[in-house]
Amino acid sequence: MYSHPRTWTQRVQLSRTCSSSMLLSSLFRGKVNMALSPLTGLSVMSLLSVGYLSWDWTSPNQVENEPGAAVPGHQAPHIIFIMTDDLGFNDIGYHNPDIRTPTLDKLAAEGIKLENYYVQPICTPSRSQLLTGRYQIHTGLQHSIIRPRQPNCLPFDQVTLPQRLQEAGYSTHMVGKWHLGFYKRDCLPTRRGFHTYFGSLTGSVDYYTYDSCDGPGMCGYDLHEGEAVAWGHGGKYSTHLYTRRVRKILASHNPSARPLFIFLSFQAVHTPLQSPKEYIYPYRGMGNVLRRKYAGMVSAVDEAVRNVTYALRKYGYYRNSVIIFSTDNGGQPHFGGSNWPLRGRKGTYWEGGVRGVGFVHSPLLRQRRKVSKALVHITDWYPTLVGLAGGNVSWTQGLDGYNVWETISEGKESPRLEILHNIDPLYVQARHGSLHAGFGIWNTAVQASVRMGDWKLLTGEPGYGDWTPPQMLGNFPGGWWDLERHTEPRKSMWLFNISGDPYERYDLAEKRPDVVKQLLARLAFYNRTAVPVRYPAEDPRADPSLNGGAWRPWAGDEEADCWNGVYPRRNKDKKDKKKKFSKMRSFFRKLNTRMMSNRI
Ligand SMILES: [Ca+2]
After folding, report:
1. How far is the CA of 328 from the centre of ligand 1 (A)?
2. pTM for the whole thing?
3. Sorting pLDDT into bands at 50, 70 and 90, what band is 482?
4. What residue stretches are annotated with the Sulfatase N-terminal domain (predicted)?
5. Which of 194, 240, 314, 476 is the most exposed place for a label (fewest CB within 10 A)?
6. What stretch(es) of the chain map to CATH 3.30.1120.10?
């Protein structure tokens, strides 16, 4: 068991570390040649000193309504959570007019754009945090993703968001990508809170055939209806297939009888880059073929959201609905995505990996047509949506997320002051990191990142840290090699003032050791609350050829879990890195040839 960050322990810790005004002003000053944004040191300071530190920890911090009665006399709202996969910060029309997303732009413009919104850098972590409201260090999923052959899934001791919504009287449905484990039936979405499920269980499938491969020859069909394999859908593009399913759910449900929760988890715009040609055609002028296809996939999602919104209106849900749109992680620039001008990419703790696209659209918002700069994290949806559903306060205690509805709907200050991006003790250790480099407070060889107010600290090996312009590959080969490179050998620690320097160009670690020490202490604090990592060895019984040609549960429900086993891949990671580099070189050579052609 761990003591939770929002218990008194944290408050005492904060009081000790942050209550002196001298320390606070020093901690949050962060001038160093940059202008501070509206989220200034002062506002954070006032939150800390007036709000956060004086908050009575024995009092409930969430709504106290009884289940099913969010607003007296009104039915709880229908909640439509739309997640896209690997959509980068620069991959939506309102951030980048080269991408055509008129529906998303309009919905966002009429609602609240979340412009200080954070997700996790890869698929499983974001999804696990959305459905549990907890950081990965509190679920054991702090390392990597759940691989198709791993006997691992969302821990059974976690009560999921849809389970809470069911308790509040909701009808709950999931359509699309799961990626939270499926080795036994108890892991499946229908056993984790969804009344119905239609979608793929692994992390990546073909958009038309629904084949998913986990290495050479390890392929299987991956489309499921409830707990059975949904054969016979080959040839239907997944973005269309999933949208049709959502429309069907909306058409067959009575909106005034029971509130609805739909988690529409698009497979798009993850690789493989596949799209019907009509969506790619408008982008035919784009020099970068991968980006052209990718942009087409984004436009297909935009059309899908238009169709879902149309159905919400047609079937009588819209007036009492909350639509949330969110990516699950940053884009992958090598495969068409773009996080420009942010640094890094999917899979890294640079802003390009974790600062996400997100907005809320709802007729129930008190304020609309606004851009919110409030700090919001993907764990916040759990208590926020349980609050909207009128859930019991006890359901949200002990979470890492905060109820941010009033922040979004009324423009109140965010209750969130910090984010633990992650601590991953299994990730390849940074060669030059050490406990000594971390002032004896923290071993900087460990991959970790934390945000506190304006400040963000990264330790260990944070991953690919270049700034990649969106059309970079169009100028290949010169453009690629002239790119601003991230070459900082011997480093194991970085500090940025994100509000003043959102692109992470000015590392202040050496100039501000005082701030560094505070954030290292924060990491050490969080680490004391971590549960062991669950990352078991792959199970040969998962092979689809042993399971009728599909990815499906292979272990008996009565089998004991082997989550205690940890499977360190360090040596393999090194080899993989070398292999990846030579693969990458040959990939770009091929790409150069392909880009000479005009085909889409
Ligand atoms: Ca993803």
Report:
1. 5
2. 0.84
3. low
4. 77-390
5. 314
6. 420-528
CB 271 within 8 A of CB 332: yes
Q: How far is the CA of 164 from the centre of ligand 1 (A)?
A: 25
Number of H helices, E strands in the chain: 15, 18
State which fold the 37-417 domain adopts: Alkaline Phosphatase, subunit A (3.40.720)
The CATH 3.40.720.10 portion of the chain extends over 37-417
- Residues that place a CB less than 5 A from ion ligand 1: 85-86, 123, 328-329
Q: How far is the CA of 179 from the centre of ligand 1 (A)?
A: 9
Give the rounded distance of the alpha carbon of 130 from its chain centre.
8
CA of 88 to the centre of ligand 1 (A): 10
CA 85 to ligand 1 centroid distance, Å: 4
First to last CA, the chain: 54
Question: Which active-site residues does the annotation give?
Answer: 123, 179
Residue 456 pLDDT: 98
pLDDT tens track for 355-386: 999 999 999 999 999 999 999 999 999 999 99
